[in-house]
Specification:
Blueprint (H helix, E strand, L loop, with lengths): L10 H23 L5 H32 L8 E4 L4 E7 L10 E7 L4 E7 L2 E5 L3
């Protein structure tokens, strides 16, 4: 008489089943947790995207404008002001003021205007646009 022994699952097969099960559970959890966003959540997300876009545009345009007018490359502003809806103002303190560089620079980007509305370097208005 021969005894039948049940085949044992190898460790590799157990690991494959565990990974497959985790993936299936992950898809199910994501599918169940997805809900329609409320109006307030949509408005909040939109406002955050708008602020990030304005900050990015200000960083790009203002650093270029300061470089064009002073010959100095600026990187990180020493101060940032914004109403988080319409404008972003970046301010820099010059590092090479003794060597002929600027002391202070301020650049305001207006979202409605789509560009720089005011650029002031060492108290002198370089750009001043009305909205």
């Amino acid at each position: 008489m021969s005894e039948e022994t049940p085949e044992k699952i190898s460790e590799n097969q157990k690991l494959m089943y565990a990974v497959f099960g985790a993936i299936v559970i992950g898809f199910v959890m994501v599918g169940v947790s997805k809900e329609d966003q409320t109006k307030e959540q949509k408005e909040g997300s939109s406002m955050i995207r708008n602020v990030v876009a304005m900050q990015e545009m200000a960083s790009t345009k203002c650093t270029k404008a300061v470089m064009d007018n002073t010959g100095e490359q600026v990187y990180f502003p020493s101060e940032t002001q914004s109403d988080k809806e319409t404008y972003v103002t970046l301010k820099w303190v010059g590092e090479n003021a003794q060597k002929g560089g600027f002391k202070t620079a301020s650049c305001t980007l207006n979202g409605q205007l789509g560009g720089i509305s005011e650029l002031i370097i060492d108290g002198k208005e370089i750009i001043k646009k009305k909205i």
